[in-house]
Design brief:
It is built from nine helices and twelve strands. Helix 2 packs antiparallel against helix 3. The protein has two domains: 184 residues, DnaJ domain (Helix Hairpins), CATH 1.10.287; 75 residues, Urease metallochaperone UreE, N-terminal domain (HSP40/DNAj peptide-binding domain, Sandwich), CATH 2.60.260. A four-stranded mixed sheet has the order 1-2-6-5. A four-stranded mixed sheet has the order 7-8-12-11. It has 289 residues and is α+β, with helices and mostly antiparallel strands.
């Protein structure tokens, strides 16, 4: 049966992908299509962001994944699969509303129960109780925080139903993670950074170095989430070289330790050369291998 929506195609994985591969593909797509990264076409980004989350809700749930593999998207349409929609009693498999910054820092966000990112990211049974109990007992809100606040943790003063509340967001929080408070649940959205990119608990940064430094070697300062760090460049470094800085990444949300930082070195070529520089390059040409 042909499907109206191919969740595997949306996440860019095959049908034989493992749960870990699906999770990694989701994080990559969610980061790429976060609406804050596409301010020129936010509406299209929000639509794609919703599709990515929708795909993950299904493929991360073994029961729903099995139904999708057998019946396609018809499995989630009333009467679409033999015997009716296996998830029809839930009022549809999922809903998602993206809430951007501005005004009240919280915007109402409706999440279908399959999309419990905290459980899917950190494993184990959900600490939030049954789906029905959660929907009846606690409202859900969303908040957008800065990239570095997600890395280091942050305390925020927010307004919930007219009352000021001080909340703490732990260091290492993930995009889309849901935090459970006494009387509400909070979904966290992380704004992109101009310098750093994050994948799981690892940090990635690209640095440009001059041609002379790549040839002769030397030292440069590279940014890390904890501040600048001196890095030795060996002579003959090639453009695109990736250097690993152990435990210079994000604190593990569960357990001790940190992720790593990966520094990609790109050699910058000068647009204009002096006569002396041109002469040196000409001399080098004769020695090229």
């Amino acid at each position: 049966m042909a499907t109206k929506t191919d969740y595997y195609d949306i996440l860019g994985v095959s049908k034989t992908a493992s749960a870990d591969e699906i999770k990694k593909a989701y994080r990559k797509q969610a980061l790429e299509w976060h609406p804050d990264r596409h301010k020129d076409d936010k509406e299209a980004a929000e639509k794609r962001f919703k599709e990515v989350n929708e795909a993950y809700q299904v493929l991360s749930d073994p029961q729903k994944k099995a139904a999708f593999d057998q019946y396609g998207s018809a499995a989630f349409t009333p009467g679409g699969a033999p015997g009716g929609n296996p998830f029809g009693g839930q009022g549809g498999p999922f809903t998602y509303t993206y809430s951007s910054e501005g005004g009240n820092p919280f915007g109402n966000a409706g999440f279908g129960d399959p999309f419990d990112i905290f459980e899917s990211l950190f494993g184990g049974a959900s600490p939030f109780g049954s789906a029905q109990g959660r929907r009846q007992a606690k409202p859900r809100y969303s908040i957008a925080i800065d990239f570095m606040d997600a890395i280091k943790g942050v305390s925020k003063e927010v307004s919930i139903e007219g009352k000021k509340r001080k909340i703490k967001i732990p260091p290492g929080i993930y995009e889309g993670a849901i935090i459970d408070f006494d009387d509400f649940r909070l979904s966290v959205s992380i704004k992109p950074d101009k310098i750093f990119e994050r994948q799981d608990d690892d940090i990635y940064v690209s640095i440009g170095i001059p041609f002379s430094l790549a040839v002769l070697g030397g030292e440069i300062e590279v940014p890390t989430v904890e501040g600048d760090l001196k890095l030795k460049i060996r002579p003959g470094t090639q453009s695109g070289t990736m250097m690993r800085l152990r435990e210079r990444g994000v604190n593990h949300l569960r357990g001790r330790g940190k992720g790593d930082e990966y520094v990609r070195l790109n050699i910058t070529i000068p647009e204009k050369l002096t006569k002396e520089q041109k002469k040196l390059v000409e001399e080098m040409k004769g020695e090229d291998l």
